[in-house]
From TrEMBL:
InterPro entries linked: GlcNAc_PI_deacetylase-related, LmbE-like_dom_sf
First and last residue of the signal peptide: none
PANTHER family assigned: LMBE FAMILY PROTEIN, N-ACETYLGLUCOSAMINYL-PHOSPHATIDYLINOSITOL DE-N-ACETYLASE-RELATED
A single GO molecular function term of this UniProt record: hydrolase activity
UniProt cross-references to Pfam families, sorted A to Z: PIG-L
Domain of life: Bacteria
Protein name: PIG-L deacetylase family protein
Key words of the record: Hydrolase, Zinc
EC number: 3.5.1.-
EC category: hydrolase
Amino acid sequence: MSEELKPFPDDWNTALAVVAHPDDIEFGAAGAVAAWTKAGKTVTYVLASRGEAGIDGMSPAEAAPVREAEQRESAKIVGVSSVEFLDLSDGTIEYGTPLRRAIAEAIRRHRPELLITFNFHDRFSSGRWNSPDHRNLGRAALDAVADAANRWIFPDLDEEPWSGVRHLAVANSPQPTHAVDVSGSLDQAVASLEAHRAYLDGLRPPVSDVRGPLTALAAQTGERFGGRPAIAFEVIPC
């Protein structure tokens, strides 16, 4: 028997989600985001790339504005109005000082109490190998929390240091520890992923059914969360 998942911490009001691509949040966290914004919390999205390498039948120059527009529409569905892009190259995001600096700047500027990122582990829970963009971006995001708090790291940034991040949450982690009840926000989660229509249609094979897999995942997670449909996160102590 797997251990029960703990309730997600609620002692925060502002969150910053930092991920590599459009659709990363929707494949694992959007239902929780919708639940949080319904409760009056503020969530901001920062994406490293515009996902321009994500549609095989569309050139990066064509795909970038399409995927950006889909992400902005998807964010609105779950109550997020602020979506930013770092304009890094999709598929070749590298861990390093420049990436840490860019994320630290965003943390100092938005001053979140919760930082959300995507699975940075080598594999997903299915055993499938994770992409280098996810691994590199996730690790840089977690490291940037300490960078943002130290005034002597990246002292050229205009923003004052920020040490107010209380919780680090990793979506789609193979090592989940906590969960969020999404029984009242599952429809928004489905709609937010469906908003990435060009991307879903461009997959091989195309994805036509979003509701089925998301509902099944929420139910499966809920088996470890009192039977309630839920989205799981790995919460890492700060």
